[in-house]
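Aim 2 progress update. The chain analyzed this quarter is reproduced below.
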Amino acid sequence: MTQTPDPAAEAKKPKIDRTKRIAMPERAAEVRRHDFNEVPEGFTPDQARTEATRCLLCKKPQCVPGCPVGIDIPGFVKLIAEGKFEEAADRILLVNALPAVCGRVCPQETQCEVKCVLGKKGDPLSIGNLERFAADWKRARGQCPLPPPAPPTGRKVAIVGSGPAGLTCAGELVTRGYEATIFEAFHKTGGVLVYGIPEFRLPKSIVQDEVNRLAARGVKIVTNAVIGKLDTVDELLAQYDAVFVGVGAGAPMFLGVPGEDLLGVYSANEYLTRTNLMRAYDREHADTPILRAKRVAVTGGGNVAMDSARTALRLGAEAVYLLYRRSRQEMPARAAEIHHAEQEGIQFNFLVNPTRIMGDEKGWVTGIECQRQELGEPDASGRRRPVPIKGSEFVLQIDTLIVAIGNRPNPIVPKTTPGMQTNKWGLIVADEATGRTTKPLVWAGGDIVTGAATVISAMGAGQAAARDIDKFLGSPDPREWQAPAPAPAEVKK
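Predicted structure tokens:
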């Protein structure tokens, strides 16, 4: 018997405002700026269901092509709306081995969410926050297993680097029946997820949980293993059927101005690695040497610059200045990270560029001279080029400078691997769709191929490479190695 809806009860149901997203609860700025605890608090079940109900469940969803790993976004969102939280997490885990990580640090606003049709008349669906909710829900109730593995293939793959690309490649390969071994140069697994991203944005316990889950599925992990020194790629190929290189782009770039050799000048790589990986953030339990500064300047406008500035504040700085040579509109950092930095008291200085660093007779930083800029015509990045304004120099009194203007690839693997080509920037040349390099049986992906990019794009590269490794090694009669054909002018052998 069909029950007739009660008009009175239906009238009492709250109407869904599809134009506005549910705001993510977060800790107060005046409290969080003094510690390294996570800033966003996550959705409650009611908030998650309400937000998920905004989804229009499009017949041809554009959000899915916007995801580098191809998550079934409408599928898991629908399950959350129905209160099936664990099933939603399982749906994500079919293609994403690191959902709790992605839900926190991926730039959904420029990938999947920017494609959401709700954004045409209001706020796009909060896909990232919903992914985080589902992953956290399942993590709090036990392990998040990977899909059941295929029968063993008897083949072995070596993975160089344990960042997002390497972890994803390993997870995909073990699911397909391969024996995967990760070689990590540091003493902890996770790559940029542990040394580059601060605790207040990505708790290390979450990364460790994701790593433990992969290890439980059979991924072997070897730490303190610098490939290119301990073993070369060729030596790995003598032991394994294939090699995937996902070492990232962790070598720092500097300004090239006078005074960069003064004491108190850090690259963001060193500053964040000392703080995150070596636990300088945990003052009660670790004695990591790092300068406790009072007045800090950070150069740059990306997420790494935001992380550095907010870290300096939490380490006790009285004033933190962020120096960016373009305007706020051109900043590449996520909007949420800029917003959080402003809330916490970071002082933004737009359209300024350092020209020299000043020091005392003992070699310590005392100040930084900057020149004001104005925006000219767009450059190769599509952003308007900063043009110096003559006679506009000024000096900021500081005792520490953190340079966060980008990274370059570490050359150790390419230089010790004959036959592997790199481009003029030192990045490994690899096919975008498959990850194949110019060296047979060697694949590569992530920042070592693209330059500094996002966690999810590195994961997509690791996933694509794993699938191509399976396709190539799994063929009874493998085709001749088809390497990418880069433009000769951009290649160095």
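The radius of gyration is 24 Å. The longest helix spans residues 455-473. These observations will guide the mutagenesis experiments scheduled for the next reporting period.
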